[in-house]
Each structure stands twice: as C-alpha cells, then as structure tokens.
Design brief:
Layout lengths: L11 H12 L2 E2 H14 L13 H4 L1 H17 L7 E5 L5 H12 L5 E5 L3 H10 L4 E3 L11 E6 L8 E6 L2 E9 L5 E9 L16 E4 L1 H17 L1 E10 L9 E4 L2 E3 L9 E3 L2 E2 H10 L3 E7 H8 L1 H11 L4 H12 L8 E7 L20
Parallel strand pairs: 2-3, 2-5, 3-4, 5-10, 10-14
Antiparallel strand pairs: 1-7, 6-7, 6-9, 7-8, 10-16, 11-12, 11-13, 15-16
C-alpha cells in the first residue's frame, strides 16, 4: 500500500470538477491546455505500447525526405553558414535522426535545437541526440542565423477555442458539470457574436466554429523569425485547407478514440489544423507561404517511391513491410490526404520542392 508521500496525483477530472463547481464552466481551450500538459509531461505516448504512432515511427523514409527537402532549399538559398535545425515537439527524436542523416548527404550539418516541454520525451531525445540544445519555447532560439524549422504533429495538440450558435446567438463553448457530476460541453453565458466572422454569422443553431489562437501564435513567431533571420519551415499535421464549421476535437488512448470529456490528462487531445488561416498568419508576419500540399502528394514529389524501391532492394526480406509503410504515409485512405504539409520561408529564400501554392490542396491519388 502506498504511503502518504507515495500517493498518485489526483485525477485531473476531479480537479476540474471542483474548479467548475466553485467558479463556473471553463473554456475548451483551458480544458485542452491543462489536460495535454498533464498527459505529455507524464509519459512517452508513442508507439505500439503507447496511444498513437506518428509518421517518423512508421518509416525512416518520412524523416529522410524531410532532411533532403531541407538540404535542397538550403543549397538553393546559397548554403548559408551557421544554420540551425529546429524541431518543435520532436517526440523520441526519430524524425531528427533520419532527417539529419539524409541532410548530411547534401552537405547540411546544422546545429540541432529541440523545443520540448515533456521531461519524459526530453530524456529520450537526449539519449538519441546528446549534442542537441533544448528549449521550453521559441523565445530562446538563436536570433542571429537562419533557421530550418520542422513541426510534425505539433500544432494539432495546441488548445483550440470553440464557439457554438445557440437560440440566443453565438456563445463560447465551455466545459461544465452534468447532472451526475461528469464533465460535459455547455454554452457560455456571454454573447460572442462580435467575434464571429461575418460569413459564418448566420450559421444554423448548433453550429460550431473552432479556432486555435495558440497555433496561430506559434506560426506567427516562426514566420517572424524566418523573415528576420532567414530560413524555411515545414508544418506537417492533419487538417484542412479552408476554414470549416464543426468541432474536430478528439481524444485518443491506446490507439482508439475515446470520449473527450472522460479522464482528462489520460488521453491525447487533438484537433484538425486550419492550414488556410495559418498561411495567412505566416504571410502577415513577413514570411513567404510556399504552399500547402497533401502529405501523399508531397512525399511522392520528393521521390518516396524510388526510396522505397531502393530500401526493398537492399533488404528483400523487408520489402512487403516497406511497401506497406509507404502506402500508409501516402495513400488517400491512410495519411496521404488528411495530413497536409505547409511550407514557409524567408522572403529571399527559394520555393520548396513539392509544395503547391493554391487554394485547392493537392492530394495523392
């Protein structure tokens, strides 16, 4: 039996329930931020034994092609000295390992910087990249040299704000208490009509608008640094190209979707990324939007088919698994269409390979 000092931390659901009972409903953004902070600081969520698998863990090809993309745009920018590789939310360090190995083939051997807040994941990253430099946020990154920024499945875990159309107008969507003390979504009491874009203001009752000020802030900060320092960035995540109505908030635990409002802090909370809005944010901060493409189309343009064939020739016994991994990364029914790749660069830097600057995102097919 655990002693007084060894008791497990109180469940976050109980903490929320007490807070709501005392002060009233909390915002969806507050709920998501606190839940994910508890979740990520306490575990390694990746892999078969965790809650979800990301593209770098599926195949080395994903990270390798990112590394080649970075080396290519760096070379065409004139191979500036002192460039830094920066990864936001680098997981186990798998993507960085594969990307940096491939980048070295193109002569790119940058200083490595990781932006990470999870102690559990930082420990794994230190084992894989002992020479890296860690940061809790973007503010302490170098400010005197170009940055090559990679953010894979980073934006989707940042808090979202939701507004819901009620019979009395638009209200912020909050988390309150149900009749039996459970956490449930409720409409706030304050009118929010002035915060709704005019083109969506007349949506029907029950409609939900979802935004992510946190994601916009992250992209704005990266874009401003690129404009001031030089460099390029890739944001890769599941999302949509144009703003849309509806809640996309979901919870995943042990590779299965679970109720968003049950056991906060014990499941990964994510929401689809609004890439159309974020492209505008980046341009307003002074960066060039290089385009946004479906992940499948982008990887195909970078040569994933040829890379898969080369790996299969080198390891015939693994040919079937290599082909399956390539399909999982690129097929429209898998990650190829839902996942998007958005590229940004400094105004003086060249275009990025495989990216389409158009309102209609290109997908694999």
């Amino acid at each position: 039996m655990a002693t007084e000092n060894e008791r497990l931390p109180e469940g976050l659901g109980a903490v929320f329930a007490r807070l709501i009972a005392a002060t009233g409903p909390i915002s969806i953004a507050h709920y998501m931020a606190e839940a994910n902070a508890r979740y990520y600081t306490s575990r390694d969520p990746l892999g078969a034994a965790g809650d979800f698998v990301t593209a770098p863990e599926i195949s080395q090809m994903f990270g390798e092609l990112i590394g080649l993309w970075l080396a290519d745009i760096w070379q065409r920018a004139g191979s500036p000295d002192g460039v830094c590789y920066v990864e936001l939310g680098p997981g186990r360090g798998t993507l960085a390992r594969d990307a940096l190995r491939a980048a070295r083939q193109g002569g790119l051997a940058p200083e490595v910087h990781f932006v990470e807040t999870s102690p559990a994941l930082t420990a794994l990253q230190r084992a894989a990249h002992p020479g890296a430099i860690w940061h809790h946020d973007l503010s302490s990154l170098p400010s005197d040299r170009p940055l090559l920024v990679v953010a894979n499945e980073f934006l989707d875990a940042l808090p979202v704000r939701q507004m819901v159309r009620t019979a009395g107008g638009w209200r912020e969507r909050m988390v309150g208490l149900g009749e039996n003390g459970t956490l449930v979504p409720v409409a706030g009491s304050r009118p929010m009509d002035a915060a709704v874009p005019a083109r969506l203001a007349r949506a029907g009752e029950g409609a939900i608008i979802e935004t992510s000020p946190a994601a916009a802030t992250a992209v704005q900060e990266v874009a401003a640094r690129l404009a001031a320092q030089g460099g390029a960035a890739l944001f890769i995540d599941y999302g949509y190209a144009e703003p849309q109505l509806g809640s996309t908030l979901q919870a995943v635990r042990a590779h299965r979707k679970v109720d968003v409002f049950t056991d906060p802090g014990e499941a990964d909370l994510t929401a689809l990324v609004d890439f159309g809005t974020l492209a505008g944010v980046a341009e307003s901060a002074g960066a060039r939007w290089l385009g946004t493409s479906g992940q499948g189309a982008w990887l195909a343009a970078l040569g994933i088919g040829a890379r898969a064939a080369a790996l299969a020739r080198a390891a015939p016994h693994a040919a079937e698994s290599i082909e399956a991994a390539a399909l999982r990364l690129t097929a429209p029914a898998e990650m190829g269409t839902l996942f998007k790749v958005m590229g940004l660069a400094a105004p003086s830097w060249p275009n990025g390979a495989g990216l389409i600057r158009a309102s209609q995102v290109t997908v694999a097919g």
